[in-house]
Amino acid sequence: MKTVTAGAAAAPGAPPPVAKKGVLGTRPWVAACFLLPALVLLGALVLYPIGYSVFRSFFGADGSSFVGLDNYGELFSNEGIRTAIRNNVIWVVLAPTVSTALGLIYAVMTERIRWGTAFKLIIFMPMAISMLASGIIFRLVYEQDPDRGVANAVWVGVHDTFAESSAYPGARPRPDSGMARTAGGSFTTESAVRAGDPANLPLVGIPPAEMPKEAAGAEQARPEGGKITGTVWLDFVPGGKGEPGRIDSGEKALSGITVEAVRDGEVVAKATVGDDGTYSLPAAADGAQLRLPGSNFAEQYNGVDWLGPSFVTPAIIGSYIWMWAGFAMVLIAAGLAGVPRELLEAARVDGATEWQVFRKVTVPLLAPVLAVVLVTLMINVLKIFDLVYIIAPGATLDDANVLALQLYLSSFGADSDQGVGSAIAVLLLLLVLPVMLVNIRRIRRERRR
């Protein structure tokens, strides 16, 4: 029997030695060559900025002096940054939750209608618009002027349907008319009126261009036995040719105004001015004071100040939901398509109502998809910047502030301090990490199933 000594050639017919390969059958150095460009980019675009931001956050504004944790203390002592943190909490709670809920409702509803595909297309269409364009659109939507802002145009239209608007906003008596302003924006005569004496009430403060085109000329009221009569009119003639306190030719009647007779604080009679500006009160008004209620002159309802300090953050969140509810709907609809129909039908056969089927069968089966959508949107809103910067006007930008915007303002705005900006970037990273870890754990659990 022959033996082979060390270093001797392999016996004839033996297989040649094979180089070791990885699990996927690829040589490790070949895999490393393919991964190297991606790893270099990952390090340059992700790891290095993170590391440098952490390093820079321990230095002052000019980067030359070490300040330790002072920049992190500034995050919780600066009022503007605290507002940004509070607004970010509001964003994380409201925006993903409402977007996911709406996406779920849309996905379930569109399953039972024939034009569901068209509806989904319309709802998803805002995703094709950039954040910049959406911000510009909603800046116009939230304009205060109802003639320009769609939101206030609708709001004012609904309000005016259920509440009467004032007849002549901004009108007031002449200073020498014998009337004084009283509670509630009303005007009351300083002395009592008597039957037979003309009780004319001249008003000013209405631009002729804002008078109704159908307004008739004012007429002098005729005396009526035992009654109080008078005229309410716009005591103004273009060019200043009229005489104050007298009904001149060309002066217009203020029809529709309410005139009240008040005695001891109680209304004893009431009348509405006619088309010619005249009114007539019964004998009960004799010896009473005349009052023009403030409802005649209240300024027109101008809608809601959507971009004011109170509503600016909810308003911007509304624009975000308009964009991202379609994204949630598409993902949830894809998950809904994979739900076994036998389970839904079995629940209905067992007597479950549609609400019970939705709540106890559909939603639990869609829980993984809902978690994906919710986590994705939470990460997205933590870095929201564009919409806030574009929609919020300068006067309320501080009230709508969020961390990503504050990072930009602190790093590159007036009195920039890149140390504080870097600390904000680190804080954002720390806020995103828990959400990412939850998402990674969820993905691993699903792979084990």
TrEMBL record:
Belongs to the binding-protein-dependent transport system permease family. Its main location: membrane. Gene3D superfamilies: Immunoglobulins (2.60.40.10), MetI-like (1.10.3720.10). This is Sugar ABC transporter permease. It comes from the Bacteria. The chain crosses the membrane at residues 29-48, 89-109, 121-142, 320-341, 361-380, 420-440. It is a multi-pass membrane protein. InterPro entries: Ig-like_fold, MetI-like, MetI-like_sf, UgpAE/MalFG_permease. Residues 85-439 form the ABC transmembrane type-1 domain. It is found in: Cell membrane. Keywords: Cell membrane, Membrane, Transmembrane, Transmembrane helix, Transport. The keyword Cell cycle does not apply. Pfam families: BPD_transp_1. It comes from Streptomyces lycii.
